[in-house]
Amino acid sequence: MAGMSILVSRLEEFKCDANEAVSMKLVRDQADFEDEGQSFHPDMSHQIFGESESIFGYKDLQVSLYYSAGRLITYLGIKYSEKVSAQEFDGVIADDIEKQIAEQIPPGYMTNSDDFLASLDKEVNFKPFGELLHSYKVEKEGRDRHFEIYRADISVPGFREYHERLQTFLLWYIDAASYIDVDDDRWVFYLIFEKYHSVTHSQQMYAIAGYMTAYSYYAYPANTRPRMSQVLVLPPFQRMGHCARLIQTFYNDVVPRPEVLDVTVEDPSENFQKVRDFVDAKNCLKLDTFQPESLKEGFTDSMAKEAQMKLKLNKRQARRVYEILRLKAVDPKNAEEVRGYRLDIKRRLNKPFEKNGRDLEKLQRVLEEGEYTAAMNAITGEQKFKILQEQYEQQVEGYRSILDRLATWHE
Questions:
Q1: Domain harbouring 30, CATH code
Q2: Active-site residues (predicted)?
C-alpha cells in the first residue's frame, strides 16, 4: 500500500491545468512570437481535454497555439522538462496532446517555428473577406485604434477555409460550442478586423478581432427571423465595446429588410444578454413610446408595436428594455414613482407563481384533498415574498449596470 501511495503521489507531479498550460497568441510579426505579453489563455479546455481540464504526463508543460493575426495560419508547439515514462510507471503513458488538439483544428498547422515565422511575410497580402459594413475607432491607451466590420458568407472565395481556422477559437471560449454546417447557405458571418499600420511592412494591414454567426430562419409565408448565434470577441480585444458594435452593425444590416419579422438570439449567455440589452435600450431611447412620460404609465401594446416595427424586437425583449428605461426615468427621491416601478416589476416576476397556482387547480380533480393542500402550501406567502424581493433586487442591479454604460457611451 505504501508503494502505491508513492506511485500515485509521483504521478500527480505529472498532472497540470490545461487552461494554464495552453497559451494562445495572434502574431503580427516575428517580435510577437517571442513576446510573452502578447499571450492569452483559454477560458475553458474541457471540450478538448475532458471535464477535468487537465493534461497528464508532463512537467513544466507549455503548449503554444499561435495564429498569424490576419490569415490565421496555425502553429502548435509543445515543450516540457520531463515526460512520464511507461517503464518507470508500470505502463502509464502521457496524454497525446498533439492528437487531441489536431482533432479540433484543420489540417495544415505547423509544428516548426521557423516555417511559421517565414509564413508571416505573406500576411501583407491578407485582406478581409466579404463586404465592409462599418468602420469605427476605439481610443485605447492614449491612441486611436481603427476597426472594420465585414459581412461574408460561404460563397466568398477562400472564406470556407478561413472560417475553419477561425471557428477553432470557439472551443476554448464558448461552453457547449459546436462547429456549424457551413454548407447551409442561410448562415451569414460578421467579422471584426483591426486595421493597423505595420512598421515592418510600412503599410496598412489587418488582424482578426472577433466575429458573429447569424442564421436566417424561415417564417411563413415569405418572411425571415434572423437569429444571432455564436459571438466571440478575442481576448486581446475585449472590453473595448466591440460586441455592442457588432450587434448594432448586424441590426443595421437586417432590420431595414421588409421580409424580417424580428431578430432573436440563440441561448444567450448572461454577458451577451447584457450587451444586447444595452444596444436595444440605446436604440429604444429614440422611439416615441419609450420617452420618460410614457414609460411611467406602464408597458403598453404601443411600445411593443413600435419596437417591433422599427427595431424588429419581439415583445419579450421590448418589455425588458421598457423596464430598463423606466428605471432610468424614475426619480429616486419620489417615493410614489419608486413604489410604482417596484410593483410593476414584481407583478411580472409573480406570473410564474400565478401560473403554478392555475396548474395545481387543474390537478385538483385527480389529487386527493390532502395532497393538493400540501402542494399549494409548498411555498408560503413569506417565502414567495422573499423570492420576489431577491429577484427584484437582482434585476434592478443588472439594469443599473446597463444604465451606467448608457450614460458613458459615445458613438
A1: 3.90.360.10
A2: 266 (proton donor/acceptor)
